[in-house]
Design goal:
This protein has 501 residues and is α/β, with parallel strands linked by helices. It folds into 3 domains: 224 residues, FAD/NAD(P)-binding domain, CATH 3.50.50; 106 residues, no CATH class; 121 residues, Alpha-Beta Complex (Flavocytochrome C3, Chain A, domain 1). The protein has 15 helices and 22 strands. The longest helix is centred in the C-terminal third of the chain and has 18 residues. It comes from Nocardia vermiculata.
Length: 501
Amino acid sequence: MSARHSVTPIDVTEVDRYDHETDVLIVGYGCAGACAALEAGETGSEVILLEQQSGGGSSALSGGEMYLGGGTPVQQACGFTDSAEDMEKFLLAALGPDADEEKVGLYSRDSLAHYQWLVGHGVPFKHSLWDSPTWVPPTDDGLMWMGENAYPFNEIARPAPRGHRVAAEGFGGKVLMARLSEAVENKPIAIHRDTQALRLIVDGKRVVGVQARHFNDTVSYYARRGVIITTGGFADNSEMIAQHAPQLVGLGINSDGGDDGRGIVMAQAVGAAVKHMSAGQIGISAVPGMMVRGMAVNNLGQRFINEDVYPGLIGQAALFKHNLQVWVILDEQAYEEVPVDERWGVRPHFVAETLAELEREIGMPDGALQTTVGEYNRHAERGEDPYFHKAARWLRPMRSPFAAIDVRRGMVAPSEGGTENGGGAAVFTIGGLHTTVDGNVVDLDGNTITGLFAAGRATSGLHSWGYISGTSLGDGTYFGRRAGAAAASSSVHHPREAGAA
């Protein structure tokens, strides 16, 4: 970062005057910021929200899935029994090694109450199930599987679908943010748009405010109780990606363009610790409905995962273990079984009557696909998959003609045109600031930094090196609420006389 964009904190004695004072100052107006504002406002605290764009952030562009469970009305209406214990077991297994046990446990136990809180603030969920693998259903169904019924997770916890999708035509993130924004704007919460946070203001070891830019003006904010950072991840900051998550370099980015990591480095500049900065969600450029009916193989023609698992986990395996040199192999019946509106415009790149021909066309070793498909078919005849344990529902022998789809050629959601875009995956970061369950930012000594809180993708939330759809919006809304409540209950710190030593 250049000098004019320095994140070095400003000592309170260097501030000539404060343009605004408030109890709680929230930086970032996505789902985490909105929920933090609502919860802080409920206490009677004065709240100001800063937003560098118009509001909504990456939350508004998301599919709208929220990972919720424990027996929600949507689950019950669709005939599923669920418990917080099973939800917790699944998340700890699916979110990677060193997933935050305290956060996952609390989130799971409070999930049903959090669902009710969201509904109480106008967030709609339809009581119906979408029952096959997909990134985003082409319907407004309100519940979907996120791999809970796939191996090995179906042996770790009792399966139940927990992907709660905000009711919408197409992507539901815009509806989620519209409802949360309506709730915020019906409260006495000040929203300062077109305002970019630059650096934190400190009084000794306590964070007491933010210096920001509003168009060409530098503006100073004083926060009597706390500053909450909800600025998102750092997928749009190529320098930070190269530094922390080099395997994501050069891939497509799933964001609103504003995930620049500034909130993270502002906090680091006052001593904040970070966690899991190399972790990312990998939205592989493959249609789940095609993969599950066929197979995903590496460039040696070998399967490497069960294709009915959550597709983001397939993406992580494809990138981190196979550098995205991955193909989807299927036959004509498998392709035709995928409804047109679920194909996302993806067509086979190679078609051949025999596997030997297909191997030659895509440059695989002679016999590679023949061996893999032969073994697959031999067991599929009996509805079995001893290699990766794909569910019997999706197993049948593949027959000529065969097709191959090159994942690296990319694809684009129908809402964005539905054509190839190259790159093989769209990614975002899931590592960030180390926080407590109440959103307190932790320093390198393991102590909380007084006056500083964070939530959402600016933090290392529930995850480590795993991801399940809905755990960003779920994590952001729930821990945003907790951060808002914690900041509002912090002790009041009155500003010194401006410029006084």
